[in-house]
Amino acid sequence: MSTQLLKVSGISKSFPGVQALKDVQFELNRGEVLTLVGENGAGKSSLMKILSGIYSKDSGNIVLEGTEVEIDSPKAAQALGISIIHQEMNLMPHLTVAQNIYIGREPRTGLFVRARALNQRATELLTRLGIDLDPRELIENLTVAKQQMVEIAKALSFDAKVLIMDEPTSALTEAETETLFNLIEGLKASGTGIIYISHRMDELRRLSDRVTVLRDGAYIGTLDKADIDIPTIIEMMVGRHIEEGARPEARQHAHDDVVLKVEGLNTRHLLKDISFELRRGEILGFAGLMGAGRTEVARAIIGADPSEGTLIHIDGKPVKISQPSEAVAHGVGYLSEDRKLFGLLLEQDVNTNILLASLADYTNRFGFVNTEKGKRKSRDYVKALRIKTPSIHATTKNLSGGNQQKVVIAKWLARDCDILIFDEPTRGIDVGAKEEIYRLLNELVAQGKSIIMISSELPEVLRLSHRIVVMAGGRITGVLNNEDASQAKIMDYATRMGDEKEQ
Amino acid sequence: MNATPVTEKSPLRKPDGRTAGSTRSFLRAKLQQSLAFATLVVLLAFFSLANDAFFTWSNISGILLSTAVIGILALGTTFVIITGGIDLSIGTGMTLASVMTGIFLVNMQLPLVVGVLGGIATGALMGFINGFNIAVLRLPPFIATLAMMLIAQGLALVISGVRPIYFSSVQGFRDIALGTFIPGLPNAVLILFLLAAVAYLVLSKTILGRYTFAIGSNEEATRLSGVDTRKWKIMIYTVAGLFTGIAGVVIASRLNSAQPQLGAGYELQAIAAVIIGGTSLLGGRGSIMGTLIGALIMSVLINGLRIMSIQTEWQNVVVGAVILVAVFTDALRQRRAGS
């Protein structure tokens, strides 16, 4: 029996204006984990969507167990034994585990679902997979990790030969990740081929039998287990040798005025005793894994979410902030990690978005807005930040991610906030635009503004931050000066459980 | 909209940053209005040809008069719908406002101006309470205003003792709606147009208008931008309440009585007018001009069908069908623009 399970070659796919995949290939054997890596936009997701029948390919071949197959719908993929577990959960919270696993395939008598048979079937499946779950439990009562297990059980209930997992551990704790890895080992042993997408290098080394690297929609290469070496992989991913030395410019306002002091911030569910200081002209990085609570800290500070026992001093004076409008009045602006959901009015024009936070400055006492003055200001910012847009009246939705981010930044510059909290400022932005955002952040602190930058990309944190706050499990586990920080050190703090805080 | 629409379209303006893209989006915004406007013109032409009695000044002025109350309600509710909300309390709220006007003027015999302002204030107060319940207590607009609709209906009946209050004794009250400040044009129509002008200015030129669109486009992003969305939502619902109060006074004046049983169902007609006028129920998009045209389309339809001796029962069927067509056309246009 041949060990080759799946062979994909010459896959191309383009969307209007973008070549997402160019002549991509890879092979998957029985009982192995093939890890697929690449930067954002490298084409991993598009490729997986083609395999699972969500997108149709423009050209190329997919050979499953020696026969060429056409996958033209998610149903066809399932029938062939290809299952995918998406990054975002697709479970219905108000249904039970069993109902979710067999949705659309319930054992029935006429119109009636045979509940007992359904639960029976789910129990058998879960037992076989070694997952300890009650099939009658509602999804909403489960932890994220358990929900993830249900997703996996659901995927395997189709007798999957190929299982695709898209960043399955992004929301899991260490212990939960361990459980997942054990499950994966079990699946390997039973001959399932697993395509695993991950950004986490530690996982990659631990799990992978082979690693395939994509970059800009093209196949770069595959490494066998013996050759897996993190620097090599990173170099393949980014296409150049990373200068591990890129570090921030020295602070130009090197005095130690504390502009923002946060003490004893707690939230009911996650954050415990968050205290830190932000100094004038400083970029304070916030690092940590997903779910560590960094965004929650930002939202609590600006009063977007409730917090308990928090003391906030701005420029040495105690302030009370219970609404974002109060934060802005005190000169604190928050740039959300999700521009589309929390940052922009996508259907409105660039002008409206740039002026949103500072509209009162262009309004006379009768409430009338001085449109011309506002537009002049918008145009100034479009020019200063080099926002690429046909005009300030273009709909914001039509701008690229980088330019949308600049619109958000322009909005806060127009408001002239002294403290800016950037949450993942370069997420979903291409490399060139990233550099521009970095330059902008540096310019802002050079002008004496102070920045908190939350970022999941360690090179970014190291490159920009003068000091780095590391969080894990809702607590601050360490504060590092840039000179003392390294990726390894940050990861070390970021993976500590909240209670082993270093003194 | 912009202050200088003519130059906006001109390709000569391109050097200062305007390009085809902005002109297109400008035209697209205009299209829905012109679509509604074209519908109105077609309807007018059709009924004029179908029946000689239609295009006479007395009939046209009748149509305008019958548009006034629904139109005023629709103007106020346009603001609410642009925020992505809904106000179901405007119909019976209007009734309560007219009953209170009756109480102030007839029972308490207060001066005309005071009674009228009292009636309007009743509407504004209801709007304020709606806004508070929605913005601060975070009730869904549908629920909050449904409750207010029932409360207003009940209060109107209780306060009036389920009897109409007649204004025959109140000097000059009837002139509010039926006087002719401009000869041949009932004042109610004048009020509608004046209010439309005010609403247009507020929606397009003031910070309240800008925030109305902003909240409707993305409330959370607006809030995170430091806009006190609670305060502004309360103001927006209060504005809708103000218009409700004015509609209450106008309808009382027109009927020369406060009819406590009237009013239910007016809210849906007003909402229909807003939607026919191209305002999106999803929020973020809409215009006063569209609402005015939408209200006129409804009145013209009903009047025309009546003149053609079509049974009342069928009139609603036709109006319903028009709403479907209007919204479907709009959705079609949106989908095309999206792809």
Automatic annotation (TrEMBL), chain A:
Residues 6-241, 254-498 form the ABC transporter domain. It is a peripheral membrane protein. It is found in: Cell membrane. Keywords: ATP-binding, Cell membrane, Membrane, Nucleotide-binding, Repeat, Sugar transport, Translocase, Transport. It comes from the Bacteria. GO terms for molecular function: ATP binding; ATP hydrolysis activity. GO terms for cellular component: plasma membrane. SUPFAM superfamilies: P-loop containing nucleoside triphosphate hydrolases. The keyword ATP-binding applies. PANTHER family: CARBOHYDRATE TRANSPORT ATP-BINDING PROTEIN MG119-RELATED (PTHR43790), D-ALLOSE IMPORT ATP-BINDING PROTEIN ALSA-RELATED (PTHR43790:SF3). This is Sugar ABC transporter ATP-binding protein. It comes from Cryobacterium tagatosivorans. The lineage of its organism: Bacteria, Bacillati, Actinomycetota, Actinomycetes, Micrococcales.
Automatic annotation (TrEMBL), chain B:
Its main location: membrane. Keywords: Cell membrane, Membrane, Transmembrane, Transmembrane helix. Residues 1-20 are annotated as: Disordered. GO terms for molecular function: transmembrane transporter activity. CDD domains: TM_PBP1_transp_AraH_like (cd06579). Pfam families: BPD_transp_2. The chain crosses the membrane at residues 34-54, 60-81, 88-106, 112-135, 142-162, 182-203, 234-252, 289-308, 314-332. Coiled coil: none annotated. GO terms for cellular component: plasma membrane. It is found in: Cell membrane. The keyword NADP does not apply. It is a multi-pass membrane protein. This is ABC transporter permease.
